[in-house]
Amino acid sequence: MRRRKGPTTVFALALTVLLSACTSTATSSDIDGDVLVVEGYGAEYAEIFNEVIAEPFKSETGITVEYQGSGSATQRYAKILASRGDPDFDLTILTDVELYQGKSDELLAPVTEEDVPNLDKQPQKLREAAHGFGAIQDVQYVSLMFNKKLFSSPPRSWKVLSEPKYRNGALIFNPSGMLGVHQILLSADMAGGGINDTQPGFTQLAKLASYAAGTPGTSAEAVPFMERGEATVFPYLDGRAAIYSKTTDYDFTLPKEGSYGLLGALGMPAESPNKEAGYKLMNFWLRPDIQKQWAESYNVGPAISGIEFSPEFTEKHIVTPESLERIKIADPGTVQENRTDWSKQWSESVR
Amino acid sequence: MRTVLTSPTKATSVPGRPVPGNNKRRSKLNLGLPGIIWVLAVCAIPTAVMLGTSFFTYEGASVTGPVTLENYTDLFSDSYFRSVLLDTVWMAAAVGVICLILGTLVAHFLVRSNSRLRGLVILLVILPLVSSVVVRTYGWLVLLENGGLINSVAMDLGLIDAPIAFIGSRFAVIIGLVHVLLPFSVFTIMSSLQGVDSSLERASRDLGAGPVATFRRITIPLIAPGLISGFILTFTISIGAYATVAVLGGGSLQTLAVLVRERMVTSLEWGQAAAIAAIILVIGAFVVGLLLSFSRKTRIPGVSE
């Protein structure tokens, strides 16, 4: 008697679909050999990365860089955490906060001067911020973005955010992103508090919330407010601020009180099988000529000392050791420890 | 001709031959097996893992300490979490009730009317299902934002002096969710309404009841199971909705689903994220159980669902 094959075939098909759904989209050929998988930000970041980093790197070393643009640094670190240091990429773009977390969780590979010789060109402040578990590759700072139509000369203080003339149209960023965290810290600083006493900052934000034009979660969400000319003054990272200062009626400045820095960082998952290639890419990115190109293309400060920039660029970005001293690096341990509480307090303040 | 129904004779087993009843059962099991495996793999096992995770505390990716209720006690002792919980349930209930009312009216029109507009209305009801939830939600963003169509028209007509801040309000989120979920409500109520004999409604009218009284006293009790199913669907989907809240909530409106994301990705508190997800599951299951038991108690004898 012939056996009916129907149910068996259906079962086999379902099992195949199930197994294919459970496997990663990355194949072994993606990760091994001469291919280095890098995950970072999308949009213009991906374009600049491919042009300034990936293509020249391949020409010099023969290593192909496969770039995956998706999500934020926190999302990428969550992937490393979920895979216990073995995600489907070899190297990723993080910030100094995730490097600190990676060190605590022992999920990032250590990075020494022996692995990445160009680290010796970095200012001590930036080397310390990497905690030995990654490499800082650029320096951004929280600038004060303002509508040029409302100011005859650039505002000089963060206090302008709470001035009656400008508070209608201020933006308050959600602390789910680091820009929001930095705004809380700036508000606390301005109100006499600080990173260990943020309550005065939340009081300020609560007052501002009834006038604010919006509460964006990311810097991209602030763009429509600029395009429509609704925003008056708000904190914004200098990289994107430089782009929109050319396409909208807005400009940016570093206020006299100084600001907070956001350090772009390269982190390598602890279980990455391509560590050698990863270290080579880190070293390549920290080379003076590549640093200059990257800084000018992405409108950020370099992560190594001794590079010459135009006076216009030097005026707007963190380029010199003196300007680096004007920005504070928020202690990542304190940030991580308090982030949930700050999110709660922020939500209660702005709703 | 008289047909006599007899009970099927018991299958007798012949040595060396398969028993027909056993074969049938095995064949049914074989057919159902892929489905069972699929449900286990994509639903039951992840849910069990999530529930398990909620009873542990984490330090990075490592579990610290024994099984504990700490995640739950921490959440329920936090007034902020309790307010988000109430807000979420309130919004989900509002979406469920609005979908119920609109869904009943639309379904009644589609089933009972002979209007030529029925085709158009069906198309309008189906439309939200053929586009992505994110696209639909961004559509509402374009309409509701400060410089959006609604505010612009209202300001041009002199109805308002300054734009109304819809984005970030519960109102915007409820509107967005109702738009996305209305088809679920309409179709479940329609299927109930199609099973109701329209002669019952005509009889009520013949006996002197007006259209409203007939709808209230005859139609609604008969379609109650469909109403309950529609509410269950829309409520349970809304309580865990993320995309609509994230976009139309403007970053300032918090719901349980938004909190899960925040604890999972930003503050990396996996135990708490799993506990919040489990709470969403329990609320959904509780409401389903409650309404199904109510449905059984109010079932009209002789009326099929």
UniProtKB/TrEMBL annotation, chain A:
Signal peptide: 1-26
InterPro entries hit by this protein: SBP
GO biological process, one term: thiamine transport
One MF annotation (Gene Ontology) recorded for this entry: thiamine binding
Hydrolase recorded as keyword: no
Alphabetical keyword list: Signal
GO cellular component entries: outer membrane-bounded periplasmic space
Protein's UniProt name: Extracellular solute-binding protein
Organism whose genome encodes this protein: Brevibacterium sandarakinum
Classification of source organism: Bacteria, Bacillati, Actinomycetota, Actinomycetes, Micrococcales
Automatic annotation (TrEMBL), chain B:
Any single Pfam family the record assigns to this protein: BPD_transp_1
TM region positions: 31-56, 89-111, 120-143, 163-184, 226-250, 270-292
Residue ranges annotated for the ABC transmembrane type-1 domain, each copy included: 85-292
Assigned GO CC terms: plasma membrane
InterPro entries: MetI-like, MetI-like_sf
CDD domains: TM_PBP2
UniProt keyword annotations, A-Z: Cell membrane, Membrane, Transmembrane, Transmembrane helix, Transport
Compositional bias of kind Polar residues: 1-12
Similarity annotation: Belongs to the binding-protein-dependent transport system permease family. CysTW subfamily.
Record's protein name: Spermidine/putrescine transport system permease protein
